[in-house]
Amino acid sequence: MKIAIVSGKSEGPTELNAFDNALMDAGIGDVNLIKVSSMLGANTEIIDLPKLKAGSMVNCVLSTINSKNKGDTITACIAIAIGDNLGCVVENAGINISNEENRKDALEMVKYMMHKRNEKINQMIIEDSTHTVENIGSVVASVVYINE
Q1: Active-site option among 7, 10, 21, 91
Q2: Which candidate, 18, 139, 124, places its Cα nearest to that of 75?
């Protein structure tokens, strides 16, 4: 199994446009995203995001949040834990919470998921995107499943 981890942030004239712009900033704006739950297979390999065919159907775990309130700090976060037999992904997002708190919460959740599965963590990765809203802002963080 191969995955890519991406994040993006942007502004736009509407929440939808801000979200679309954040997806483009993350490199996943020209595909159809299919949200899936949070499991990874054994021997998951993390790669750079390859060029995706426009319009293709792409599975992902997606964390996102928007805000229309000028000055809000918005953060989207993905935490990944990989063990010998499987891996887990957690998405977390918030408005006006510290980036550190958002990351800490995501890490605790993914550690718990692995613990409940009696899986030792061999590798832990976290990706986030933080943005201070100017007008209408959006942030995304995603694990993108790469079809082989």
Answers
A1: 91
A2: 139
- Assess whether 32 carries a catalytic annotation: yes
Phi, psi for residue 105 in degrees, rounded to 5? -60, -45
One-letter amino acid identity for 10? S
Number of alpha carbons in the 13 Å side-chain half-sphere of residue 113 = 22
Please report the pLDDT score of residue 16 as a whole number: 98
| Domain extent listing, the chain | 2-146
pLDDT class for 89, splitting at 50, 70, 90? very high
Instruction: Give the CATH class of 2-146.
Output: alpha beta
List the 2-11 sheet strands across, edge first: 32-35, 57-67, 137-146, 2-11, 45-46
Kindly give the residue spans of alpha helices, DSSP state H, lying in the chain. 15-26, 99-116
Of the residues 11, 15, 17, 38, only one is catalytic, namely: 38
